[in-house]
Specification:
Number of strands: 7
Helix content: 25-40%
Strand order of the largest sheet: 1-2-3-4-5-7-6
Order of helices and strands: EHHHEEEHEHEE
Shape: globular
Structural class: alpha+beta
């Protein structure tokens, strides 16, 4: 287990968030998604200016995990249009630290944020081929509630929606 401090993300964390996103997306998805899909997702979802706005946005809990002076993971989530339901939008940890408890600590921070906002359920969508992610969420008590086919930047994929009680 690695001892990491969890804190709210700041605009100065954006570069580290982008670095971690790139490493984890390639580690988790290189075998299940086309390279172009991964690169498009990273370019669109981890644009530094958009990330800075997301980090500063009210109503979204955005957290980072630090070991020493290094950001080694991040997570975000918050309430949806349904006041009882929140979504976990992102949770990524440096692949070298997978299995060290940092993901669980980040998840706990998002869960606390969502509970304080009055939510009762946390929902997440995971690609069906992401065995590391599915195993993590199931180990945290999430259960599959839906599986569907959808398009991810013009690539047909299957995703799984899991839910857990807050």
């Amino acid at each position: 287990m690695v001892d990491a401090d969890i804190r709210p993300a700041r605009p100065g964390d954006v570069e580290a968030i982008c670095r971690i996103a790139e490493r984890t997306w390639h580690e988790a998805y290189d075998d299940i998604l086309r390279t172009g899909t991964i690169e498009t997702a990273l370019a669109e979802w981890y644009d530094p200016d958009q990330l800075r706005s997301a980090v500063e946005r009210n109503g979204v809990g955005y957290f980072v995990a630090e070991t020493g002076d290094d950001v080694v993971g991040f997570a975000s989530g918050g309430p949806t249009d349904d006041p009882a339901v929140a979504t976990l939008d992102t949770i990524y940890v440096d692949p070298d630290l997978w299995g060290d408890g940092i993901g669980s600590d980040l998840l706990s921070a998002v869960e606390s944020f969502c509970r304080e906002a009055g939510c009762e359920t946390l929902s997440i969508r995971v690609l069906a081929g992401n065995e590391v992610g599915l195993s993590f969420y199931r180990g945290e008590g999430f259960e599959t509630v839906e599986e569907r086919e959808t398009d991810l930047f013009e690539e047909r994929v299957t995703d799984v929606r899991l839910e857990g009680s807050l």
